[in-house]
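name: query_chain
kind: protein
chains: 1
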Amino acid sequence: MSERKTARETADMAQSFVDLHCHSTASDGTLSPAEVVRLARRCRLSGLAVTDHDTVGGIAEAEAEARASGIDFIAGIEISCQFPTGTMHLLGYGVDPVNPALTKLTTELVGGRDDRNPKIVEKLNQLGVSVTMDEWRARASGGVLGRPQLAAILVEKGYVRSIQQAFDKYLGSDGLAYFDKERLPAREALDRIRQSGGLPVLAHPRQLRTGNDAELQTAVKNLVDLGLAGIEVIHSDHDADWVCKCEELANRFGLLKTGGSDFHGTNKKDISLGVANGRRVPRAYFDALKEQLAVVHPPIRPART
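structure:
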């Protein structure tokens, strides 16, 4: 795609939509990175960020396909962090996939999953659920092993009726076969994202499960003090009230607003790429993110002779 755009193309893009949170087979999605990009094109998205869990292994493939498809692209990652109540995930946008700080981190995170996953399978076997690590690895297609892949196997084998039931009964934090993976302190995750040239954004704040709005605000303020750059306003878990809450937090703390579907393919059948709880993510979110990334990565200008 040409770097120069006509006025008409610029106007059309401003009215278009994007998805800044989705997953591929590099982690726990069911479409390859290139297939996710091709689906984005069919959905008429103008911009996309692939944000696989704990890995940037799909970025090169997705970026190449985006370039061929004429879709603007941002490299991303999603990292799990320690938090006392619910789930804290940080999205890293604009990260350099070959940065040593990031590659060291992803190696450590995948190693933590490798330690945890056999424990889950062993516990399921003890509960009378017949599943093997080989089946899980085959489902992952060479990517990072995630619980949604295992949940899909349990559905296919008839142990549960849905992926949600698999999490409720076995794999979720209150499930019979739950084992947590290693999670980073938020400070370390924020630092690693920054060190790799990225901007850290708090994903789906609703999943923090803070007790009230004051606790939510405190949690966000603490992250801002550590270098948080943005907050995910639009997400498939966010209803209208949560969208408003997150917008208010973004305005209060001067944070970038982002949004995405959290698409995983058939591992989350009720979520479609480009749509988050009935909402579309405006192109303005993508452009603001790119603008801020340009400050982090200023263009190299040729030396004067």
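note: Residues 56 and 97 are 6 Å apart (CA to CA).
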